[in-house]
Write a structure and sequence with these properties.
Blueprint (H helix, E strand, L loop, with lengths): L18 E9 L9 E6 L2 H12 L3 E6 L16 E12 L5 E19 L2 E8 L9 H22 L4 H8 L4 H10 L5 H9 L3 H73 L3 H16 L6 H14 L12 H11 L4 H16 L7 E5 L6 H12 L3 E5 L7 H4 L12 H9 L5 E5 L12 H8 L8 E2 L6 E2 L5 E6 L7 H5 L2 E4 L5 H19 L7 E3 L1 H10 L7 H19 L5 E3 L1 H8 L17 E8 L2 E13 L4 E4 L4 H16 L1 H4 L5 H4 E6 L13 H12 L8 E3 L2 E2 L5 E2 L4 H10 L4 E5 L11 H6 L1 E5 L2 H8 L3
Helix pairs in contact: 2-4, 2-6, 4-6, 5-6, 6-7, 7-8, 9-10, 9-11, 16-17, 16-18, 17-19, 20-23, 23-26
């Protein structure tokens, strides 16, 4: 029969029903039919050896699909019983271990035994041949026609089958081959493919194929309808989008001229009301006209529009009305800050002159003082007192001149400098502008910003300040510039020369106490959700924080410490403790062991021990000095991290004593047989300056004269080699430090008499301040009889 003609040379047709063992290849997700030619990629080790075994023998191999394609090492129960005997037509070794083979299905076969031995798959199989009854020829022909027609319909609907394939199927007369060829071109599930393969009877096979084709036609028809519906929706959306874009283009074409005219009129109206000087007015007007003539698509349009917007946004004539009531201004300044009398007095002087002379130029004030002393907040208070806008401009770390003067507008992203930006932010021509940290300006290859500030801070020049971006002079003469700095010596000299420097000294203990009571306690109560009835802060508690928990010129650490106490108190309050009273003991309980010791005078009068006075970055302090004379070789040894100036002061004082050896009983063999050692405690802290001269002379004199130094006496002053006592700086801080340490008598240079008025009255009343012109004056007071 025709059905028995599909064999290869090595298949013996007469062995029907006999079993044969041949190499086997389990397939994953694939079904191979007779008459089907297919490429297979083989990667598993055992499968590769099965292919090699088939190639070594007669190229026959049994192909059967796995029930679970994910199974890596299939067993007999994991493989379908019915498969196909195929011939390996071609073998191609790919990079790595993968092999690609070309196989052609020959005939169906049943798996009787699965053999997994010697790292290879083999199968004991029974050949199966297509079956059909001659009595069913008419029915078989009808099934063939139906299958062909259904396949053609499926091909038309799905649009997945080529015309050549359709032609082959139409001209095929072999019923067995027809079913297998149609099945090989269907995109159906593995189970459906296997069911076709397992249909040994041709009639049954065609019936299965017809059922699957009917179902697939329905699915394909639904897919086609869904695709058409989606396409219609997309087409409609695209159509609407194109129409909208066309309408927009037409509208732009019609309205572009009207929009430009209205924009041009709006800009001209703003220009007219801006109050610009004539030079600026003409330049901006020219830019507006140029913008009107330039097409919108030109890139330069954005540059021109940005420039025009900046020029129209900068204030040219709007100003705040000054509050010229001196009493009101005084009240506001006193409300915001305790102390700081000199800066307040200077602001009130400005107001007085401003009231007398309407067109006066704004002063340039520089507040110099340690961190935390209220320089920045004072500038805000000045703006509030004057009823002016306030803008803060930080200059710390600025090292590019363009930050002050701006960039040329031709650069991409160009903007005016910070001065003009601050004017725009203020919105008036007479704001208070704070130039913070002016002593920390830098400079590099991009220019020196301090040089650019010369024009800003010079009252004779800043009425025509030139910014690179706006390209026209701008009047800054009505601005009240306030600058701040921690130290004056790092400010460039030409810049410092243009400013009126006002010293903002470190706060005294009494001032810190008042600031804490008036401002810090109230502020921290509010920030920590407490009320005055919940907690009471005693003066001695605040004083303990000031003396033993902070070392600063300002009050920032003091405020943080008070905040810490209030946070801990809030926890105690919620845990049941009612009224909390913060005294010295409570402060130590809440803040822990004090990190600093309180300055105290010596407990006993001693020879060679003198209380000196010094000024640090956080205020004044007492600085004891110890001197000792011993046998040696005439050396002068100075210890305690002393600077060159202090060492020179010691040498000058010793020279004075040796030149007056008889008066001060200096031993004759001092320079040969004796050593002098002068030591300042707290050796890790660097010390320098000439004001310790009298201290060292007094310490040595007390040893040579064999007289003790009074324990309640402190002193400061520079000494010359002729014994004169010269003026020193920081007198207020030094005297306050002495008062804080319990000192009763303070010896100061006669030349500093004028500075005594800076010392608080209550401190002057508690201390005996002695004025000294010479070393004799000092020793007369300092040494015991």
């Amino acid at each position: 029969m025709a059905e028995k003609e599909y064999t290869i040379d090595t298949i013996i047709d007469d062995e029907l029903g006999l079993l044969e063992t041949i190499p086997m290849l389990p397939l994953r997700g694939v079904v191979v039919y007779p008459h089907m030619v297919m490429h297979l990629d083989v990667g598993r080790d055992k499968s590769l050896k099965s292919v090699d075994l088939a190639m070594d023998e007669d190229r026959r191999i049994f192909l059967s699909s796995q029930i679970d394609p994910q199974q890596g090492e299939p067993q007999e129960e994991d493989i379908y019983d019915i498969g196909v005997i195929a011939e390996v037509k071609q073998l191609l070794r790919l990079p790595g271990t993968t092999v690609r083979i070309l196989v052609e299905g020959v005939t169906r076969a049943r798996l009787h035994r699965f053999i997994d031995e010697n790292d290879t798959y083999q199968a004991e199989v029974e050949y199966l041949y297509d079956e059909h009854s001659i009595d069913d020829d008419l029915e078989l022909e009808a099934l063939m026609r139906t299958a062909i027609q259904d396949f053609k319909d499926y091909a038309v609907i799905s649009n997945k089958i080529s015309n050549d394939t359709i032609a082959i199927v139409e001209n095929l007369n072999d019923s067995a081959a027809l079913g297998d060829i149609i099945a090989s071109h269907l995109s159906i599930a593995l189970e459906d493919r296997q069911s076709i393969l397992e249909a040994i009877d041709i009639k049954e096979r065609l019936e299965v194929i017809c059922q699957i084709l009917v179902r697939e036609k329905q699915v394909a028809e639904l897919e086609r309808k869904i695709a058409e519906k989606v396409k219609e929706q997309i087409d409609q959306s695209q159509k609407e989008y194109y129409l909208k874009e066309q309408i927009k283009a037409i509208q732009n074409e019609l309205d572009d001229k009207d929009d430009k005219e209205s924009e041009n009129e709006e800009l001209l109206d703003k220009l007219e009301s801006s109050g610009m000087p004539e030079e600026a007015y003409e330049k901006v007007k020219k830019e507006i006209e140029r913008l009107y003539r330039t097409p919108s698509a030109v890139a330069e349009v954005s540059v021109m529009r940005n420039y025009i917007d900046w020029m129209l946004d900068i204030p040219w004539q709007e100003k705040s009305r000054d509050r010229l009531d001196l009493n009101k201004a005084q009240k506001i300044l006193d409300e915001d800050h305790y102390g700081l009398e000199k800066p307040k007095e200077r602001i009130l002087e400005y107001l007085a002159v401003r009231k007398m002379k309407k067109d006066m130029k704004g002063p340039i004030v520089c507040l110099v003082g340690p961190p935390g002393t209220g320089k920045t907040s004072l500038a805000k208070s000045v703006a509030r007192a004057l009823n002016r806008k306030f803008v803060r401009l930080s200059l710390g770390g600025v090292h590019d001149e363009a930050e002050i003067r701006g960039h040329r507008k031709t650069y991409i992203g160009a903007m005016p400098g910070r001065i003009i930006q601050s004017m725009k932010k203020a919105g008036t021509v007479n704001p208070v502008i704070l130039l913070d940290e002016v002593d920390k300006l830098g400079s590099d290859y991009k220019g020196d910003p301090s040089s650019a500030l010369l024009e800003v801070l010079d009252p004779e020049q800043n009425n025509s300040f030139s910014d690179n971006y706006i390209e026209v002079p701008y009047d800054l003469s009505k601005v009240l510039f306030i600058t701040t700095a921690n130290v004056a010596h790092t400010i460039p000299r030409p810049l410092l020369d243009r400013m009126e420097t006002i010293e903002v000294n470190s706060y005294t203990e009494l001032e810190k106490l008042e600031i804490a009571k008036r401002h810090l306690v109230t502020k921290q109560l509010k920030e920590n959700g407490l009320e005055k009835k919940d907690i009471q802060m005693l003066d001695d508690g605040i004083a303990k924080i000031i003396n033993q928990y902070t070392r600063e010129a300002g009050v920032r650490s003091l405020e943080r410490s008070i905040g810490t106490i209030f946070r801990k108190s809030a926890k105690l309050f919620l845990l049941g403790e009612k009224k909390i009273v913060v005294d010295e003991a409570k402060v130590e309980e809440l803040l822990g062991v004090p990190p600093y010791r309180k300055d105290e005078m010596a407990k006993e009068s001693e020879k060679g021990l003198v209380m000196g006075l010094a000024v640090t970055s956080v205020g004044g302090t007492i600085l004891p000095v110890e001197a000792s004379v011993m046998n040696g070789t005439g050396k002068l040894q100075l210890t305690g991290s002393l600077g060159d100036v202090m060492k020179e002061s010691a040498s000058a004082g010793l020279t004075y004593l040796r030149s007056n050896a008889e008066t001060y009983k200096v031993p004759e063999n001092l320079n040969k047989e004796m050593d002098i050692h002068i030591h300042y405690p707290e050796g890790a802290i660097p010390k320098d300056g000439p004001s310790a001269g009298v201290t060292m002379v007094t310490a040595l004199s007390s040893i040579f004269l064999d007289r003790k130094v009074k324990k309640d006496v402190a002193m400061t002053g520079e000494v010359t080699i002729r014994g004169r006592v010269l003026a020193i700086g920081g007198l207020k801080e030094k005297v306050l430090a002495a008062h804080r340490a319990g000192i009763k008598t303070v010896i100061i240079p006669k030349e500093n008499e004028k500075n005594i008025e800076d010392i608080p009255k209550e401190v002057q009343e508690d201390l005996n301040i002695v004025l000294a012109e010479t070393v004799e004056d000092v020793l007369a007071v300092a040494l015991e009889k």
